[in-house]
UniProtKB/TrEMBL annotation, chain A:
Protein name as it appears in the record: Formate dehydrogenase FDH3 subunit beta
Annotated segments matching region Disordered: 193-213
Keyword 4Fe-4S: yes
Pfam families registered for this protein in UniProt: Fer4_11
CDD domains in UniProt: DMSOR_beta_like
Domain of life the protein comes from: Bacteria
Taxonomic lineage of the native organism: Bacteria, Pseudomonadati, Pseudomonadota, Gammaproteobacteria, Thiotrichales
Protein's UniProt keywords contain Metal-binding: yes
4Fe-4S ferredoxin-type domain segment(s): 4-34, 45-77, 78-107
């Protein structure tokens, strides 16, 4: 069974915020809700790197563990979804999440928290019918049901943001890392130019990821 | 073993042999140390010791948006799931058990001399209104707070996620709105009941004798005994912790970050369990534990013999002001009762 994952390649991310825009466009999230964001560290210094971060769809999700109403479910593809009918807006998932993924639209008096909103891996909600108007209103698009991967990764111009089955994502990234190590190794004459093949892609995985080399 | 030794020998000898005829050939590949750019990056993102993240920037406006990985969330998760929930259940369960055991051992505490025909004014109308406002808000907050803490294990399995979620949502809203009201009423309560609740030397004697809880001997006490004074100060001090931390959690619009809120949640939850434990004892003592206790807060008047037995020093002060029980009933009927007294 597939286990869906995001991975952001910091060596490739150029902080264009295209993923953020794609996410907002695909899911039509309300103002103030940022399912995805790009963070740059060492901005303007040597070693500057950017990373795009959203819900990482953890295997042992802290949000799921601490939720007082048990509103989270992990789908068979390993996507962590939450039910907005059950959610009470207490913010406990927001305290526990290391990535800052849960977002709360301000709701009512004293800007108390409304129902939580977070990245759904473009898989809609757990309870509404796939691609129904109710589902879109509550959770945004359901590209997974259409056989597509999340729009943020699909739109990434440098293919820094990878989304898909963990094995395929890991395979793509492993090839990149080996290639980079090899190029660093022979910085004067590139091994890549001489036909260096770090790995052989298994035929069953060929062309199945969102991005290829 | 022999193979290992052989390998070691080769490792030592072979480079030496190579060095001899190696003049133009490039150095062996394995000898180069290739730094991984990922190592420093992930150390910086995790905020490990000796790393410098430099200036962090993000286009997304908001609190803590520049934090990529917040490690404190895991500490809070472990605290809530593995420490708070089981230990709170144990503490509250033990208090309930202690009350049941005390009831079985001691039974209901009667007025030994029987009821007298005179009553003494114990609480003013203002005090009673303040007390009951605080009490109702407190019970609402305690029940809704316990639902937030234990609800997943009780409410959701019993009612299902659909109804349980809606019910918990309602309870959470009650908790949010009763909280600030409780903050106000607690401040008024602390001021209203301050007179007579200052600790005195006499209280040590009362405590040393166990407050007369066990055995038949009564211990001298003024208007409030050390137990009542203790509850007053628990309500005031622990209550202040609950209220302040609760307000920090209740109003997320002042840009306090996640870590601030988890720290205040530690304070709020621990202080909440302490004050709920105290309240269980107070509610038991004030209602069914002894004859004549509840009517003092319900009507404002206590029985003269009850005062004599439980608050003897206060009774000596007040016995001249005792009024016949019938006259109170009558005055109430006529609407002549002096509430301001």
């Amino acid at each position: 069974m597939a286990r869906m994952k995001f991975y952001c390649d910091a060596e490739r991310c150029i902080e264009c915020n295209g993923c953020v825009t794609a996410c907002k466009n695909a899911n039509e999230v309300p103002m103030g809700v940022n399912r995805r964001r790009v963070v740059t560290i060492k901005d303007g210094e040597p070693g500057e790197r950017s990373l795009s971060v959203a819900c990482m769809h953890c295997s042992d999700a802290p949000c799921q563990a601490v939720c007082p109403v048990d509103c989270f479910t992990t789908t068979k593809d390993g996507i962590v979804l939450h039910n907005k009918d059950t959610c009470i807006g207490c913010g406990y998932c927001f305290y526990a999440c290391p990535f800052g993924a849960p977002q709360f639209p301000s709701d009512g008096a004293f800007s108390s928290r409304g129902k939580m909103d977070k990245c759904t891996f473009c898989a809609g909600g757990p309870e509404e019918a796939d691609n129904s108007p109710e589902e879109f209103r509550k959770y945004g698009s359901n590209r997974i049901a259409e056989g597509k991967l999340p729009l943020c990764a699909e739109m990434c111009s440098t293919k820094a943001l990878l989304a898909g089955d963990a094995n395929i994502v890991a395979d793509i990234y492993r090839k990149r890392v080996v290639n980079r190590a090899a190029s660093a190794l022979v910085s004067s004459s590139s091994l890549q130019q001489t036909g260096f093949q770090p790995t052989v892609v298994p035929p069953e995985l060929e062309g199945k990821a969102t991005a290829t080399e | 073993m022999n193979k290992v030794l052989l390998l070691l020998c080769l490792l030592v000898v072979v480079p030496g042999v190579q060095a001899a005829d190696q003049t133009a050939a490039p150095p062996p590949l394995a000898a180069q140390n290739v730094p991984s750019p990922g190592v420093d990056l992930w150390n910086e993102i995790r905020g490990r010791d000796g790393t410098d993240t430099g200036q962090i920037r993000t286009q997304v406006q908001g609190v803590d948006t520049g934090v990529l990985i917040n490690k404190q969330g895991q500490d809070w998760r472990e605290y809530r799931m593995e420490k708070l929930i089981p230990n709170a259940a144990i503490v509250l369960g033990l208090v309930a058990l202690a009350i049941i055991v005390f009831r079985l051992v001691r039974g209901k505490i009667p007025i030994r001399a029987g009821r007298s025909d005179h009553k003494i004014k114990r609480f003013s109308t203002l005090q009673r209104y303040v007390h009951w406002t605080t009490a109702i808000l407190f019970v609402a907050l305690a029940i809704t707070g316990m639902v937030l803490m234990f609800g997943r294990h009780i409410v959701i399995p019993v009612f299902g996620a659909e109804i349980g979620g809606t019910l918990t949502y309602l309870f959470k809203r009650i908790h949010d709105f009763a909280g600030p009201a409780f903050a106000v009423s607690l401040v008024v309560l602390v001021i209203t009941f301050m007179k007579g609740n200052m600790p005195k030397l006499l209280d040590l004697k009362w405590l040393a004798k166990g407050g007369g809880l066990f055995g038949d001997k009564h211990v001298s006490a003024e208007c409030y005994n050390a137990g009542e004074k203790g509850w007053y100060w628990i309500a005031a001090i622990v209550g202040a912790f609950v209220v302040v931390s609760g307000l920090v959690l209740d109003f997320p619009n002042f840009e306090q970050g996640r870590n601030v809120m988890t720290w205040y949640h530690w304070i709020h939850s621990i202080a909440g369990v302490v004050i709920m434990s105290g309240a269980m004892g107070h509610i038991y003592m004030g209602t069914v534990a002894m004859e004549g206790a509840f009517e003092a807060m319900a009507t404002g008047y206590c029985d003269a013999n009850w005062a004599k037995e439980h608050h003897d020093l206060w009774y000596e002060e007040m016995k001249d002001q005792a009024v016949p029980a019938d006259s109170i009933e009558q005055a109430k009927g006529d609407g002549l009762l002096d509430h301001s007294r």
